[in-house]
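User: Here's a structure from my thesis project, written as structure tokens. My advisor, Dr. K., wants to see whether a designed sequence matches the one we expressed. Can you design one independently, without my sequence as a hint?
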């Protein structure tokens, strides 16, 4: 039986006016002659200016417009049907989706991931664009709007570098290098020019045997031989029960594992209540929604011994013991 190859599907997201349409046009100029590319554009306004621009400058490209709103709000339910129209009207080698600058890319990713089999698409690393000219550490840290984009990015692009001085560009790169979860690539460019190679990056899969230790994550105890970092990644399809996960992580941090103290842990998890970012340090628990969608991942630091990823996963997946939960709550 012949299997039809899945169509690579890309999201190019970012704030209004950051250069998403320019980046897609740049890709089409370089590739539309040897690829059949379909583009789905979610224009913020009702007229559909971005899609009109794309169709005018790349007439051989199939462009479908979803105007008048935000693809992650009123148009979200229509997204699978729109893609089905796009791929059914023409045999395509690639699909590129440009959500409106008001859209939450994580929600678009969720819908596409659920529809991958039905639509015969293969979701590729998400490309998120930000303006280097507008970069400011304090603003980017403070505003949930920027967190929404940065967490959802697999590839983070700082565009409009021609409008920023070298020091601001370097600060932006440094800031991006410390994002957690880390990005597959951090790119600087101008006028939306992106290497076609970015559209051929494979989505990272689970690296079960590779410890996740960030080179930028320096700890006060980094020279203490009794301090041991560890970590893992899991495929995005793996879904945790949020209650079981949270209780077990709290138990691990409060009680330790096999006489080993867990000094700190943090992670992003796909749960039955969506994607959650969890961090526990000094018995303080932080839980918030996460826009990261590439994989579930966790890092930890233990003392005096090391905990391997198989043992940690075993503890995370332990069935809940109500008596143990009661004792845990009393100990807080």
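Assistant: Designed independently from the structure alone:
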């Amino acid at each position: 039986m012949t299997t039809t190859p899945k169509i690579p599907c890309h999201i190019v997201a970012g704030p209004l006016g950051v250069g998403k349409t320019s980046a897609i046009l740049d890709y089409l100029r370089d590739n539309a002659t040897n690829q059949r590319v379909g583009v789905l554009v979610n224009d913020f306004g009702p007229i559909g200016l971005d899609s009109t621009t794309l169709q005018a400058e790349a007439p051989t490209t199939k462009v479908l417009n979803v105007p008048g709103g935000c693809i992650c709000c009123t148009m979200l339910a229509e997204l699978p049907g729109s893609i089905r129209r796009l791929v059914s009207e023409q045999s395509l080698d690639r699909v590129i989706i440009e959500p409106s600058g008001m859209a939450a890319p994580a929600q678009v990713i969720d819908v596409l991931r659920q529809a991958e089999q039905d639509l015969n698409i293969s979701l590729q690393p998400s490309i998120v664009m930000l303006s280097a000219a507008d970069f400011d550490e304090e603003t980017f840290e403070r505003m949930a709007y920027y967190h929404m984009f940065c967490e959802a990015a697999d590839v983070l692009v700082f565009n409009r570098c021609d409008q920023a001085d070298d020091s601001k560009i370097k600060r932006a790169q440094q800031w991006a290098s410390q994002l957690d979860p880390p990005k597959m690539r951090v790119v600087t460019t101008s006028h939306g020019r992106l290497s076609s190679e970015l559209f051929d990056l494979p989505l990272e899969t689970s690296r079960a045997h590779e410890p996740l230790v960030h080179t930028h994550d320096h700890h006060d105890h980094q020279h203490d031989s009794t301090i041991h970092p560890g970590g893992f990644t899991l495929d995005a399809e793996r879904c945790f029960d949020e209650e079981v996960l949270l209780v077990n992580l709290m138990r691990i941090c409060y009680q330790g594992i096999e006489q080993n103290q867990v000094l700190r842990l943090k992670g992003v998890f796909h749960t039955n209540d969506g994607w959650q970012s969890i961090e526990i340090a000094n018995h303080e628990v932080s839980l918030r929604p996460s826009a990261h969608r590439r994989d579930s991942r966790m890092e930890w630091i233990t003392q005096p011994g090391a905990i391997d990823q198989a043992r940690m996963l075993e503890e995370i997946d332990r069935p809940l013991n109500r008596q143990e939960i009661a004792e845990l709550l009393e100990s807080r």
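When you compare it with your expressed construct, this may help: The chain has two domains: 7-200, 228-331.
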